[in-house]
Specification:
The protein is α+β, with helices and mostly antiparallel strands. Helices cover 40% and strands 19% of the residues. The protein has five helices and ten strands; from the N terminus they run ααββββαβαββαβββ. The chain has helices at residues 2-34, 40-80, 135-144, 157-165, 201-204, and strands at 85-87, 94-96, 119-121, 124-133, 148-149, 172-177, 186-187, 215-219, 222-226, 232-237. The protein has a four-stranded antiparallel β-sheet with strand order 3-4-10-5. β8 (215-219) and β9 form a beta hairpin. The protein is globular, with a radius of gyration of 21 Å. It starts with a helix and ends with a strand. The relative contact order is 0.15. The model is unreliable at 82-109 (pLDDT under 50). One of its GO terms (molecular function) is transmembrane signaling receptor activity. It comes from Cherax quadricarinatus. One of its GO terms (cellular component) is plasma membrane. Residues 121-237 form the C-type lectin domain.
Length: 240
């Protein structure tokens, strides 16, 4: 368990370092694009910086996948470490029950009310983070805040209430990603699939992922695909 915790901290540090490097290079690339005096030299530099950004994006995506695997494995080991036996109707015969392996995060018991820093929306407890963070930074921020980056509920009343709560023209990070399997979108900490009705209409019409857009954000129109290094507000929730 200690090794897993150490590995988690190491991967989170690497994610933050990659995110900083990508953000720095992206700003440099934008500055170079605005400088029209250097002509062909600027174009060469921009192309080189763009190639570095794309490579860092790929490394960030791989590290993000490893972080999710480590955190899910940690939760699984914590769940399986508790003694559990089945009674076969004989007070002297006890046998250890077989536990099916899983890498999903186990939800907390249902609560009638939310913590003071979380907001009750329908049946869920949510925290709306105002700081603009990258996707991996938002994952870590929600864990530090006692929750998980948002997993959308299935289409229905709860999803409608949550979308109605969003500020107009504001885009938030969710935990939706296809880093584990390109084109197969799921929510990071629960492994629940992203459903077709979760997507905004224009995203649902296009199934392709372009320009390293492997993380999903949400607005009042639904989910959209973005680079994981974009900086956005985010939503945390407590699994029920």
């Amino acid at each position: 368990m200690e090794r897993l915790s150490t590995e988690t901290r190491r991967i989170e540090a690497k994610l933050n370092r990659h995110a900083f490097n990508v953000d720095f290079l992206r700003r440099r690339m934008e500055g170079l694009e605005q400088n029209s005096e250097s002509g062909q030299t600027v174009e060469v530099q921009v192309a080189a910086v763009r190639a570095i950004v794309n490579r860092l994006d790929d490394r960030l995506t791989d590290a993000l996948a490893r972080l999710g695997l480590v955190e899910n494995t940690t939760k699984t080991l914590e769940k399986r470490s508790a003694p559990y036996y089945e009674d076969f109707h004989d007070p002297f015969i006890m046998a250890a029950a077989v536990r099916p392996p899983t890498l999903t995060v186990y939800p907390s018991p249902k609560q009638e009310s939310c913590r003071l820093d979380y907001e009750k929306v329908g049946l869920g407890c949510y925290w709306f983070g105002g700081d603009e963070l990258t996707y991996p930074e938002a994952v870590a921020a929600c864990v530090n805040h006692g929750g998980q980056l948002l997993t959308l509920p299935a289409p229905g009343t709860q999803l409608d209430l949550l979308i109605a709560r969003l500020h107009q023209e504001t885009v938030y990070w969710t935990s939706g990603t296809d880093t584990f399997s390109k084109g197969n979108w799921a929510f990071l900490m629960t492994a629940q699939p992203v459903m077709p009705l979760h997507w905004a209409q224009e995203e649902h019409a296009s199934s392709s992922t372009q320009n390293n857009q492997h993380c999903a954000s949400i607005s009042s129109s639904g989910l959209s695909k973005r680079r994981c290094t974009h900086r956005l507000p985010y939503i945390c929730h407590i699994l029920q």
